[in-house]
Amino acid sequence: ADDSGDEEPASQSDKSELHGTLKNLSSKLEDLSTCNDLIAKHGAALQRSLSELENLKLPAESGEKIKAVNERATLFRITSNAMINACRDFLDLAETHSRKWQRALQYEREQRIRLEETIEQLAKQHNSLERACRGAPGLSSSSTGITSTAKGSVQSAKGEASDEDEETEYFDAMEDAPAFITVTADPKHHRRSGSNVSGASEGHPEDWNLEDSVFESSNQSSYNESTGKDLLPKKRRRTRIPDKPNYSLNLWSIMKNCIGKELSKIPMPVNFNEPLSMLQRLTEDLEYHELLDKAVKCESSTEQMCFVAAFSVSSYSTTVHRTAKPFNPLLGETYELDRLEELGFRSLCEQVSHHPPAAAHHVYSRRGWTLWQEITIASKFRGKYLSIMPLGAIHLEFHSSGNHYVWRKVTSTVHNIIVGKLWIDQSGEIEIVNHKSKDKCQLKFTPYSYFSRDIPRKVTGVVSDADGKAHYVMSGTWDEKMECSKIVQSSHGSTSTEGKQKTVYQTLSPKVLWKKYPLPENAENMYFFSDLALTLNEPEERVAPTDSRLRPDQRLMESGRWDEANVEKQRLEEKQRAVRRRREAEAVEALEEGE
């Protein structure tokens, strides 16, 4: 409390100094504007005088000198105006950045006060818990472990190095979900402790060590190593595609050709696309299918939920660099990925509706799970960014246990649509529900914020059972990795500044469930495709005539023949519109005959 009191005047002093500097700069701007007016006025008078003097009948030599003086005076006036304009631009820029600095300073101050309140409340709770343990008989060893954990939690906030400090982690509260903080406990203390405090959690810490074999093997080093011993690769897959050609894009020429046309009939060039269909992008969600293979081996439904949650997050890992748009599937277009012999699953997608676009997806795995989903894409253009909202539920069922999980995707936002470099962010919440056991996992995708101190693309969540009791804490980022920590104790903490009560979870050390595979070499020239994505459009024998691999425009684009791909793409789209008009006319005719 003393430190915060000392820093309060310093913060106010910095704020006052910033206001004073801004005020001084504003006064200087007024001085420069006054000087500008005076120079313009006096310069104009000087030039008029010189012009009048030049018109007088004077010797030729004097006239030339007066003309030279007039030219130099004009140059001086132009230079003075340029200097004043440059000073004004500099001051405007300084004023703009000063406002940003002021907002950043205020935000840092609020965050510091909030953190101090949280740490202070946590220290008080640990102290009261320590005194309670000391007063209870037979809890001396337990109090020792709790005391060391409390000291480590406070010292980690102060930056001191210790073993407890390195194991202590704090997770910021979720805005729309129950607020919580996690503190990593020392497993040794809990193993020795026989107190009621450690026994408050139904899942004993020893269970975590028994499950280590499943958790430790969940992180594979590469896509090619994710196959099991019983399923060996039968075919060598391609590892690269032709490099993306460097074609310039003239947006004005595209907009000019769109004047007076219906939006649904505007042909978009393949410059905005990547050589994959939306059906293939859906199939790409299975890149980390081994997470579901691991989940089959879990005996606990809450532990299995952790792997399902990690799988739901892993599907977004490829979007961090993939700003290009996949091809819109034609009505009736299909895509089959048969990897039963290699990876143990077979995936089948079909475009079942064109307006609105909708697809159906079914995956069967001989390793004990089935996944299916129906998805419709809704989008809204909001000026500077585009919001993409996938509609529809994803279902996952495990054959042996009968556990049936359901969840929905979050909103994807494409920024800098008009000006700047495109980048994608994921935001929102995913609620995964096990309809058999009623277990739930609430995941929050934190949206990017310029003033946030959180790591970008952060994902946090809690796995709880049917009674609402929390068992695991999920944490990580949707573009790198996900971890889970087993909860051994929970308690109610202080009330946050938003009026929500925080819950303090004491957890064991986190385990890595999923980690993103590194991109292949030269990925930046191959649309940032992953190892699996490079094989999705690889030609296959004995595929259906409606398979996405046989789309001529998509194949031409992959080969680098973009001009031909644009022509073919426009032909296919117009053909699909003609078929749709014919079907609508037939439907109207059939309806009239029925009447």
UniProtKB/TrEMBL annotation:
Family note: Belongs to the OSBP family.
The protein's superkingdom reads Eukaryota
Please provide the record's keywords in A-Z order.
Coiled coil, Lipid transport, Lipid-binding, Membrane, Phosphoprotein, Transport
Task: List locations, semicolon-separated.
Answer: Membrane
Sample GO molecular function, one term: cholesterol binding
Which GO biological process entries does UniProt record here?
lipid transport
Write out the coiled-coil annotation as residue ranges: 105-132
Compositional bias ranges of the Basic and acidic residues kind: 540-577
Report biased composition (Low complexity) as residue ranges: 138-153
Bias class Polar residues marks the residues at: 215-226
Any one Pfam family match given in the protein's UniProt record, by short name: Oxysterol_BP
Residue ranges, annotated region (Disordered): 133-167, 184-239, 540-580
Which InterPro entries has this protein been placed in?
OSBP_sf, Oxysterol-bd, Oxysterol-bd_CS
- Principal cellular location given in the protein's record: membrane
* Entry keyword annotation includes Membrane: yes
The major lineage groups are: Eukaryota, Metazoa, Chordata, Craniata, Vertebrata
Q: Which GO terms describe its cellular component?
A: cytosol; perinuclear endoplasmic reticulum; plasma membrane
Q: Which gene encodes it?
A: Osbp2
PROSITE patterns assigned: OSBP
The membrane topology term of the UniProt record is:
Peripheral membrane protein
This chain's source organism reads Nyctiprogne leucopyga
Q: What is this protein called?
A: Oxysterol-binding protein
